[in-house]
Amino acid sequence: MRLPRPGSLMGQMLLAVAAALLLVQGLGAALVYRAQRERFQAETMSALAFRLIAKTRGMERAPRQMRMGPGLFSERLHRYPVQARGQAPLLPGEHRDLSAEEKLRDILATQDFPVTDVVVLRRPVAADPFASAALARRAARLALPREVIAHARRADLYIAGVRAPQTGGWMIARVRAPPLADALLLPLLLQTLAIYVVLVGVVALILRRITRPLDALTRQVARFAATQDPSGQVTPMGPEDMRRLIVALNAMEWRIASLLDEKDVMLGAIGHDLKTPLTALRVRIESVEDDTERARMAATIEDIVRTLDDILSLARVGRPSDPLERTELSALVSAVVEEFEDMGEAVELGDTERAVMELRPTWLRRALRNLIGNALRYGQTARISLARDKDTAVIRIEDDGPGIPEASIETMMQPFMRGDPSRNTETGGAGLGLALARAIADQHGGALHLANRLARNGTIDGLTAELRLPLG
User: How are beta strands 447-454 and 382-389 bridged, if at all?
Assistant: First the structure.
């Protein structure tokens, strides 16, 4: 199974579960560590108190529970004898364990062992001369291996020094510190790992059951949006809610496809039923004797045919019938510019970069003709260039016209919106050119952007149309 992406539903859910589990497990581990540390400290202080009381009162007078020792550390109680000194065991640079001192003082008070001063600290065996000497004697007597001796010297000691009123001097007891970190680290790690494997694994299986049909449904909807072909629909699967969603989307796709088919049939009928009488009308006006009137009638018919063709093209752009072709974009742009040059129009082809991509050449030529035609109509000149911006091809068409008010730029790309509010065909068409160009850009996964070009004095110096097409 592939690892989920962090941005996906499954990835975010697993990250959330893992983060929550880490937080809870971390808090639990901290509480367990603290409880175990307090328990080990209490047992260690009990062992130190036992050593001190046994030294002072004798083993027979020690309480029964203390003669038995503190359980886990009973084998260590007599490893280091209690030492009598005239000063406290604290060396320069060492720090006292105040919480341990408080616990030891309380334990001694419960056993009627009054003390005036208590000092508790932690020190390595190797740094304590008394413990090092005792260890050396024991090692020589028992012939211990070097590895055992080295391990013993690396251990830590809890050292307690108390001064009783009846003696006035210091009694110092030593007990090896419990290996707290080693004792707790491995079980906590194993416990955390086991919980992660079980919980995250179960959550991953549940999420996989949800996200698998969702991923398939997403791919199908994206394919339908690009092709409007409802074939290959997703079979209902997953939880009941997901099954109902798949069934509803499948039904919606079939309904949309049926409506689009009906639209295509209707458009075909409209195109046939209108163009046929217009063609007949074009033939009949040839009998009009007045040349001026005949030219006006022919121009009106051409305008109707052109507008009808734009309307039909705009309606069909969402469901193109021609396939994508691998095309050299700079050559296509140059060919369109040459068409206008052959008609004597003021067009200029600027810098172009080679860009090869999958597109529908007929539709893209239509978009370029509309944009260049608008530039010539409103700005009298058109400058065309082609550049690459990372993975995007950018076709720019610039003119020297009056531009478009900023508030109206988006409106001008809507169908039947014209820069000239009159319906005079001498100053503009039916207002479909920009709408059709934007629809063709959307069809190729690109976009059409319009922006005014400003002069140094802040006035509008023309309009720039950018047709951006992805190269991927």
Answer: unpaired
Which one, of 85, 117, 118, lies nearest residue 104 by Cα?
118
What's the half-sphere exposure (Cβ side, CA atoms, 13 Å) at 265?
6
Distances (CA, A) of 424 to 304, 434, 450: 13, 17, 23
d(CA 457, CA 76): 93
Q: Is 398 left (phi over 0), alpha (psi -120 to 50) or beta?
A: beta
Beta-bridged to residue 118, according to DSSP, are: 162
Tokens 């478009």 correspond to: 404
| Fold topology of 322-470 | Heat Shock Protein 90 (3.30.565)
pTM of the predicted model as reported, rounded to 2 decimal places: 0.47
Q: List per-residue pLDDT tens for the chain, 472 residues long.
A: 566 666 677 778 888 888 888 888 788 878 877 887 788 888 888 888 888 888 876 643 444 444 433 333 334 333 678 888 888 888 888 889 898 899 998 998 888 888 889 999 998 888 888 888 887 887 777 777 888 778 777 788 889 999 877 667 888 988 888 765 556 667 777 887 888 888 888 888 888 888 888 888 888 888 887 777 788 888 888 888 888 989 999 999 888 888 877 777 776 677 666 777 777 777 778 777 787 887 888 877 776 777 777 666 666 666 556 678 899 999 999 999 999 998 889 999 989 899 888 888 888 888 898 899 889 988 889 999 999 988 899 999 999 888 888 888 887 777 656 555 433 444 455 567 788 888 888 888 889 999 998 888 878 888 999 999 998 7
DSSP 90: P
Gap between the Cα atoms of 442 and 469, Å rounded: 9
Q: Which residues, including other chains, have CB under 8 Å from residue 393's CB and lie 6 or more apart?
A: 329, 355, 357, 386, 387, 468, 469, 470, 471
Contact in structure between 172 and 159 (CB atoms under 8 Å): yes
Two tokens, residue 464: 């720039």
Query: Domain extents for the chain?
Result: 26-183, 228-317, 322-470
CATH architecture, domain 228-317: Orthogonal Bundle (1.10)
DSSP labels, 213-263: HHHHHHHHHHHHHHH----SPPPP-SSHHHHHHHHHHHHHHHHHHHHHHHH
